[in-house]
Design a protein that fits this description.
Radius of gyration: 21 Å
Helix content: 25-40%
Order of helices and strands: EEEHEHEHHEEEEHEHEEHEEE
Strand content: 25-35%
Mean pLDDT: 86
Low-confidence stretches: 256-278
Distance between the termini: 33 Å
Length: about 280
């Protein structure tokens, strides 16, 4: 089985921007090379690989002189490449790769639905999470009704959503996944979606994201997409299930504060800052 070489596009590095090329080896390990140009990064990588190498078609111009065979990527390989590019740009640990791939898969299903055109900004959808026997009640809202910040936010509970919407403050944790059309376009354009940027806060202050934030965002997207097919729950991990709250337990909640006559509801920002490094590409 040959090694597969992929381009991750342009990444921000200490000295500016550089081209990143990665090889997925037959044993499942990954080798990364970053240099000023694609050709230089590819040559750097070639010196560490066996001769049996396949590269994606856009790398053919640098790969063929090195003896590599070019071919089109499968969709699974495109998702893997996008998750690896986002992981490196956001400085996520390699052990989060499975959660990040799941988030990107869910994002790809969510994005074409344009739910911000169907779900009002003042609505929070209540979930129930049962994790190792412990129950919590997070809530999610769809973002983008104002024409910006397209994506989804997940709050610790519906009360925090109302606090944010009514007064612009939160007490608990917030995690959002928002579209950044200018980021990592080389990795995400082939999937037909903008790059999803993860932003996390606690009490309105930026905090570093966790693997659990990625899983909770992925599960929320999966449920939002699945509701049209009658899907009401999704496992996050073993003994960890996220589901819409049962009918009668809770219903979608809306902003409760009365508006003055003639005023227009205004969507509060999903977060107040970025905890993760924002990925960028040229």
């Amino acid at each position: 089985m040959p090694a597969l070489v992929l381009s991750l596009g342009s990444l921000d590095v200490a000295r500016g921007t550089a081209e990143a090329v990665v090889a997925l080896k037959p044993d499942g390990t990954i080798d990364l090379a970053i240099d000023a140009t694609l050709a230089e990064a590819a040559r750097q990588l070639a010196g560490r690989l066996d001769r049996d190498v396949v590269c994606e078609e856009p790398l053919a111009f640098v790969g063929r002189p090195l003896g590599w065979t070019a071919r089109a990527l499968t969709r699974d390989e495109l998702v893997f490449r996008a998750s690896l590019a986002l992981s490196i740009a956001s400085e996520f640990p390699p052990t989060w790769q499975d959660a990040l791939q799941r988030l990107i898969e869910a994002w790809c299903a969510f994005w074409p639905m344009a739910l911000w055109d169907q779900v009002p900004p003042e609505m929070a959808l209540p979930f129930e999470r049962v994790r190792q026997g412990r129950r919590s009640t997070p809530a999610t809202s769809v973002l983008g009704q104002s024409g910006r910040e397209f994506g989804v936010a997940v709050y610790d509970d519906a009360e925090d959503f109302h606090r944010l919407f009514d007064a612009g403050v939160m007490k608990g944790n917030n995690r959002s996944v928002l579209a950044d059309a200018g980021a990592l376009s080389n990795a995400f354009d082939p999937l037909g979606v903008p790059c999803p940027v993860v932003i996390t806060t606690k009490g309105m202050k930026p905090r570093k994201p966790t693997r659990d934030d990625l899983l909770l965002l992925a599960g929320s997207l999966e449920l939002l997409v699945g509701v049209v097919r009658g899907v009401t729950e999704t496992p996050l991990e073993a003994d960890d299930v996220l589901r819409f709250q049962r009918t009668g337990d809770a219903a979608p909640t809306q902003r409760r504060r009365a508006k003055a006559a003639g005023s227009t509801p205004r969507r509060k920002p999903a977060t107040t800052g970025r905890a993760a490094k924002k990925p960028r590409s040229r």
